[in-house]
Each structure stands twice: as structure tokens, then as C-alpha cells.
Amino acid sequence: QVQLVESGGGLVQAGGSLRLSCAASGIIFSITNMGWYRQAPGKQRELVAKVTSGGSTNYADSVKGRFTISRDNAKNTVYLQMNSLKPEDTAVYYCNAWTSTQTPYLPWGQGTQVTVSS
Questions:
Q1: Which run of H or E residues covers position 95?
Q2: Rounded distance between C-alpha atoms, residue 111 and residue 91, angstroms
Q3: Given pLDDT bands bounded at 50, 70 and 90, which one contains residue 102?
Q4: Of the candidates 105, 89, 95, the residue with the CA atom closest to the CA atom of residue 34
Q5: Which of 26, 83, 84, 88 could be 2's S-S partner, Cβ–Cβ 3.0 to 4.6 Å?
Q6: 47 contacts 33 by C-beta, under 8 angstroms
Q7: Distance between CA 30 and CA 13 in Å, rounded?
Q8: What SS3 class is residue 28?
């Protein structure tokens, strides 16, 4: 059974940092491209960071230079280090696997709420 469990969110002041974790089960994690998505109230879910099975990373312009995605294949876990947080980063954050067209394809987890106060 495929399961994604996100954790690490919280309330932080602008300029602060958080580290999100996503533990995956039921997939061959080491060969799976993974990404972090976020959905703010009233907005569509967007891909903010992705990492290939080989470790290559890519970021949305809105988070480039502030967020870092990484993975630990031994723990079946993908991380998102978020620094210099801004109020506009407030959203529910989810992880998922993605296809060559960047389409997420696993069942969504519950997500983790990140709230950045000004």
C-alpha cells in the first residue's frame, strides 16, 4: 500500500526556517523522482521543488535560493529545507512522485501546514 506521510510544518515568523520531511512506503523509493508541492488557500497546487532519482534538483523561481530539496534513499524520505521564509510561503505542503511531464501520480498524503507570520 502506497503511503506518503509529511511532517515538520508549523508557525514561524518571516525570515525563519523549517525543515519538512516526507516518508514514503509502498514504492521503490530509490528509483522514484520526488517533489514537494504546496497549496495556498484559494490557489492551485504547485510544484515548488523536485529531485530526480539520481539527485538532480530543480526549483520554482519563487523559492529558488531559499529552499533546498534532498533525499535519503536509505530512509525512503525526502526533505525540504526552507530558509528565509516569507508570508507568501504559507500553504499546505505535500510530497509526491512525478512523471516525465511533472504530473504527480501517487495518492496524496495529509500534507503539513506551514504558516509564516509577518
A1: strand 91-97
A2: 10
A3: confident
A4: 95
A5: 26
A6: no
A7: 35
A8: coil
Identity of the residue numbered 32: T
Q: Where are the alpha helices (DSSP H) in 15-91?
A: none
As a whole number of angstroms, the distance between CA 30 and CA 85 comes to 29
Q: How far, in Å, CA of 58 to CA of 65, rounded? A: 11
Three cell numbers written together for 25: 512506503
Residue 92: count of CB within 10 angstroms of its CB = 18
pLDDT tens for 3-12 read 999 999 999 9
CB 26 within 8 A of CB 97: no
pLDDT tens digits for range 16-65: 999 999 999 999 999 999 999 999 999 999 999 999 999 999 999 999 99
For 55, residues 6+ apart whose C-beta sits below 8 A from its C-beta are: 71
